[in-house]
Write a structure and sequence with these properties.
Radius of gyration of chain A: 15 Å
Radius of gyration of chain B: 21 Å
Helix content of chain B: 25-40%
CATH architecture of the largest domain in chain B: 3-Layer(aba) Sandwich
Number of domains of chain B: 3
Oligomer: heterodimer
Order of helices and strands of chain B: HHEHHEHHEHEHEHEHEHHEHEHEEHHHH
Largest interface: A-B, 35 and 56 residues
Structural class of chain B: alpha/beta
Number of strands of chain B: 11
Bound molecules: iron/sulfur cluster
Strand content of chain A: 35-45%
Chain lengths: 78, 364
């Protein structure tokens, strides 16, 4: 029940967002999300509420560090 | 933006390199504990558990909210489920959890209790709006990830004046449990992998005592194989350097300062109190109770619920499993009298429970 998964925001209507993962759409509430998401953002969803807007820049930075540290090529593009 | 960049955190090539680095760096045996059901499942399901260097020992702690819900708490909601005019709204995970007398909500439902499985506290509020003739009691279990969703729902219930919505709060806080585990000499934990989405809410500060007082490292980690390996590598490096710290390796989902907006909602609705944990017993300031401003929505107050300590389940060693003192296979009932089809204890009931994970995936 702790499961919290990243889902893509496809529509926002005030305090409710439609989010999608692997073709399934559901509605989540936005009362406690840290920063208001926009359509196209990913949010971490838990028990019907968005908890956090995923930070793409931070994800890229982490991957960039791995890429350099281990000489890998992920083909990262912005 | 696509999910592509998130999939990189599963990259097999990167995993192999991280494993090789870990092998180089980790000289002495390292006992690490994770305290999140999703980590438990991720470590088994990804196969990481069998790939880790032999001197890295994985302990699965009290990270499954269903498992740490105390026998007496289960008995309290079972008692409530039997009363007329009450509808219990619950996450599905609690349905099969046994109380002191081995009864569960599922059994209560078969005997005629009104029990509805919901996906969110908010669904329970909607149920209350549709069911004005009954008191709808939502069973609030879960850690800091879940507590703000419940708190926000209680605020909405108040704003809408829906007083037939009630919360029975058994929410618990992770950091006080970590302190209890660190003070248990039998467990001997070298480091923690900290729960990613609990940390999304609380940030790093509440874990500071782990490094300051106990001189252990703790790393906030995500749930992909790369996330977990990165955390273990950082733990091993900090130990080699003799510099225990609390660090955040899950920056895409966790701000060092957590989510202040969600914490403000929690603080408005809840105060802390002593809570009973299965296996760990009573821990001061580790539970969340409703503030008096929300007394109209507090099931404990409205139904005079008293938590009476029930005896632990006979033969079940869940408590020792949750503390990392034994692994599930050392329980005499494991895979004999107790399996997922006939669970004796909650650690076998929940799919996130350590016993269930060992049963399903263990190849040791
Ligand atoms: S195997 Fe079953 S009886 Fe033994 S500790 Fe786990 S849940 Fe309890």
């Amino acid at each position: 029940m702790c499961l919290a998964v990243p889902m893509e925001v496809t529509r926002i209507d005030d305090m409710i967002a439609d989010v999608r993962i692997s073709g399934v759409t559901r509605q989540v509430r936005l009362e406690i999300v840290d920063r208001s998401p926009e359509v196209g953002d990913f949010v971490i969803v838990h028990a019907g509420f968005a908890l956090r807007r995923l930070d793409r820049e931070e994800a890229m930075e982490t991957l960039q560090l791995f890429q350099e540290g281990f000489n890998l090529d992920f083909g990262l593009s912005e | 933006m696509t999910l592509d960049f998130l999939n990189k955190f599963k990259d097999p090539d990167l995993c192999r390199r991280l494993l090789a680095r870990l092998e180089e760096v980790c000289g002495e045996p390292l006992r690490f504990m994770e305290v999140c059901g999703t980590h438990t499942v991720a470590i088994f399901q990804s196969g990481l558990r069998s790939l880790l260097p032999k001197n890295i020992i994985h302990l699965s702690g009290p990270g499954c909210p269903v498992c740490v819900t105390h026998e007496s708490e289960v008995d309290a909601y079972l008692d409530l489920a039997g009363r007329s005019g009450v509808v219990i709204a619950t996450f599905g995970d609690l349905m099969k959890v046994p109380g002191g007398g081995r009864r569960s909500l599922k059994a209560a439902q078969a005997e005629g209790a009104r029990v509805e499985v919901v996906y969110s506290a908010f669904d329970a509020l909607e149920l209350a709006a549709r069911t004005p003739d009954a008191q709808v009691v939502f069973l609030g279990v879960g850690f800091e990830t879940t507590a703000p969703t419940t708190a926000a729902t209680v605020q909405m219930a108040k704003a809408r004046g829906l007083t037939n919505f009630k919360l029975l709060s058994f929410h618990k806080l992770v950091p006080p449990a970590l302190e209890v585990l660190l003070s248990d000499a039998e467990t001997a934990i070298d480091a923690f992998i900290l729960p990613g989405h609990v940390s999304t809410i609380i940030g790093l500060a509440p874990y500071g005592f782990i490094a300051e007082r106990w001189k252990r490292s703790a790393v906030v980690a995500g749930f992909e194989p790369v996330d977990i390996l990165q955390a273990l590598l950082d733990i091993a490096l900090m130990r080699e350097a003799g510099e225990p710290r609390v660090v955040n390796d899950y920056k895409r989902a966790v701000d060092d300062n957590g989510n202040p907006r969600a914490r403000a909602v929690m603080a408005d609705v809840f105060r802390t109190e002593t809570a009973l944990w299965r296996g760990l017993g009573a821990i001061p300031d580790s539970g969340l109770a409703l503030r008096s401003e929300y007394a109209d929505f507090d099931a404990k107050a409205c139904f005079d619920i008293e938590i009476v300590e029930s005896p632990p389940l006979a033969g079940c060693r869940c408590g020792d499993v949750l503390k990392g003192r034994i692994n599930p296979t050392q329980c005499p009932l494991f895979a004999k009298a107790c399996d997922p089809a006939h669970p004796v204890g909650p650690c076998m009931v929940s799919t996130e429970g350590s016993c269930a994970a060992y049963y399903k995936y263990n190849t040791d």
